[in-house]
Amino acid sequence: MSAAGTPADRGTEPVIEVRDLHTAFGSQVVHNGVDLEVRKGEVLGIIGGSGAGKSVLLRTILGLKRPASGEVRLFGAETTWLQPEERRPFERRFGLLFQDGALFSSLTVQENVQVPLLEYYSLPRDLLDELSLLKIRLTSLPADAAAKYPAELSGGMRKRAGLARALALDPEILFLDEPTSGLDPNSAAAFDDLLRTLHEALNLTVFLVTHDLDSLYALCDRVAVLADGRIQVIDRLEVVERHPHPWIQACFRGPRARTSGGGPEMAKER
Amino acid sequence: MAADDIAPDTALTLDAGARALRADGAWTLDRAAALAPVVAAASLGVGDGLVRLDASGLTRLDTAGALLLLRVLRATGEPLAAHALTGLRPQDQALLQLVAASLEAPPARPVPESTVRRLLGRIGLAMVEFGHAAVGLLGFIGLVLVRLLRTLVQVRRLRLTSTVFHMEQIGLDAVPIVSLLTFLVGAVVAFVGATALRDLGAEIFTVELVSISFLREFAVLLTAILLAGRSGSAFAAQIGSMKSREELDAIQALGLDPIELLVLPRLLALLVMLPLLTFIAMLMGILGGAVVAVLALDITPSMFVSRLHEMTDLRHFLVGMSKAPVFAFLVATIGCLEGFKVEGSAESVGRHTTSAVVQSIFMVIVFDALFALTYMELDI
Q1: Strand A94-97 with A173-177, pairing
Q2: CA triplet B64, B36, B55: central angle to 5 degrees?
Q3: β-pairing, A94-97 with A77-78?
Q4: Distance (Å, rounded) from C-alpha B30 to C-alpha B26?
Q5: Which residue, A258, B4, B83, B318, has fewest beta-carbon neighbours within 10 Å?
Q6: Given the DSSP bridges, would you call strands B84-86 and B52-61 parallel, antiparallel or unpaired?
Q7: Which residues are paired to A32 by β-bridges?
Q8: Which of B272, B270, B251 has the alpha carbon at shortest distance from B340?
Q9: In Å, how far are B203, B226, B231, B364 from B360, measured between CA atoms?
Q10: In terms of DSSP H, where are the helices of B171-313?
Q11: How far is CA A1 from CA A169, B95, B96, B102, B151, in A?
Q12: Are A117 and A128 in contact (CB under 8 A)?
């Protein structure tokens, strides 16, 4: 697939803008002035230490958590303080993959994928079935997985099924919360490949929260580092690697980092 | 993509003897329902052979649109690559290829079985499951009894702290609810009895009605049902969530015995506390009856007490008390067993918790009926 070019070819029109965001749980401050811009068509990776507030940032952008102050704009419209009903037109333009898939356990994989389709559209039965099966195949799940329940799937398959559900409405932005955590290196690499293929063919903007350096190298156009309550740097990975912030240096120069330069070889240990 | 670039004239046109197709407008999910019949008609129209598809009027394409477009092309019996596609934007071309590669003939929907067959199947399945559950319960009871005996021989194996903790949770914390409930039921029984007995001029028999019914049946039955809902469910949920977090495997891997560690403290606690709570329930039920008798009927407290003393045999109390340990054993084993049956998900914890309550109440009532029959035959 060569439809999508280098980052420079892509538009610079922002689809997500976060301005001076402050969030806190009680007295514990999580974000202390986060500024972030996600451009249309790019894959933006968010990294940061455990507890740095990556998932909270994602939840705040989605409106699952309210900030203390600041502004979130989606597709150019301010959405920070919208009521749940007012959010719905935005929500159908998102796809969201939770850490463990968050599949509905009482439904089969295919029914899971059909949930958003049934909620928003009234499609003929055969089209609904074919479309949901198509999404399942797009995520490289075997055909017989469609009729299985989430409890019968392995961790990697659950993530793929969660991705199929996230793609059900043909979203413009795909939010991924640590998509490769808990997968073995081969499955994680395969998942990265899948995401890259889908990103290019489906013309997605991807907001990727991750711990996985390999995913960053494999997928991201730009990387943002969240540390000490704010975005320390947001740029291409080569630039980010050289940033002097101690966490970034520890991350990219530490014992678990890849050899500098980011060659294609896998990290030896995980 | 902003909403304003959606052309209103989404359409599929066939001409030149159905060998040339034109797709116009936005082929997207929100138009899929409207496009589906158009596509179905076109699929019948094209027939076999190659076609030319002009997509220059196509403004948007997503997977649903690609799927529909491919339905038409598939109806020709030729692969996607063989057709002449013009005017497709590169990203749409890529999307179409990806969808085509992922698309296979949808599997046939399974033919539904006849209702009678399904009904019989469900009955059969339910019977088989009931049989398995009964065997499982008996096996578990045996296992628990063996471990219980071993613990009685080697008393230092008993987890005293855990047992006392459960005694507090099961017994002490349940005193208010058990007291209130049985007090109210005692009052109700006295009221209902008194209204019927008043017509016969036999109001004084209300005392025996309340005392005998509570000593023999109500106190122990109400307490057991209450504890099935309060503690049996808690056992299933506690052990079940431990199972789903693999804590039980950890216990075994550490060389500990889950029965000894988890089941026996709960069982022993319930075996001690259910009789004690039953005793409280008896007192409170009779007290409830007495309050009604004193306030609503012309029975003085001293009359009530002396009548209770004279007319109510000790054996009624013993009959009631004899059932308490049996009910305690049932509630505890069923609750713990359902906890062990949990597998994997949180949903399973909920299902087995419900099942623990239903089963233990069912068993308590069945055993109560068996006790009633036995004691009746024995003239006790």
Answers
A1: parallel
A2: 65
A3: unpaired
A4: 9
A5: B4
A6: parallel
A7: A22
A8: B251
A9: 37, 11, 11, 6
A10: 175-199, 206-213, 219-227, 233-244, 247-253, 258, 264-296, 301-311
A11: 22, 9, 11, 14, 68
A12: yes
CA A66 to centroid of chain Cα atoms: 19
Total residues found in chain A within this entry: 270
Amino acid at A61: I
Please give the distance of CA B216 from its chain centroid, rounded to a whole number. Answer: 32
CB contact at 8 A, A116 and A105:
no
The chain A residue lying nearest B96, using CA atoms, is A201
Q: Can you say how many angstroms the Cα of residue A180 is from the centroid of all Cα atoms in its chain?
A: 11
Kindly report the nearest CA distance between residue B97 and chain A, in angstroms: 9
Burial class (CB in 10 A: 0-12, 13-18, 19+), B56: exposed
Q: What gap in Å lies between CA B335 and CA B149, rounded to an integer?
A: 20
**Euclidean distance between CA atoms B228 and A202, whole angstroms:** 55
B29 inside 8 A of chain A by CB: yes
Given A133, A197, A198, which is nearest B106 (Cβ)?
Answer: A133
Query: Which residues in chain B are closer than 8 Å to A201, comparing Cβ atoms?
Result: 91, 94-95, 97-98
Distance (Å, whole) CA A101 – CA A150: 9
SS3 label, residue A30: strand
CA distance B114 to chain A (A): 21
What tokens were used for B316? 């009624």
The minimal CB distance from A134 to the residues B30, B102, B343 is found for B102
Residues 249-268 on B with a CB inside 8 Å of A are none
Sequence-distant (6+) residues with CB within 8 A of B217 are B320, B368, B372
Of A96, A94, A36, nearest in space to A67 by CA: A36
Q: The tokens of A266 are what?
A: 């896998």
Q: Are A175 and A96 in contact (CB under 8 A)?
A: yes
Rounded-to-integer distance, Cα A160 and Cα A153, Å: 10
Burial of B302 (0-12, 13-18, 19+ CB in 10 A): exposed
Residues of chain B numbered 39-78 and touching chain A (CB < 8 Å): 62-64, 67-68
Partner A contacted by B173 (CB < 8 A): no
* Complex ipTM > 0.95: no
What's the rounded Cα separation, in Å, for the pair B370 and A49? 64
Those residues of chain A whose CB sits closer than 8 Å to some CB in chain B are 1-4, 105-106, 117, 121-124, 126-127, 129-131, 133-135, 137-138, 143, 150-151, 167, 169-170, 172, 197-198, 200-203
| Burial of A181 from C-beta contacts in 10 A (0-12 / 13-18 / 19+) | middle
B33 CB within 8 Å of a chain A CB: yes
Residue carrying the six token digits 């039921």: B185
Chain A contact for B110, CB < 8 A?
Answer: no
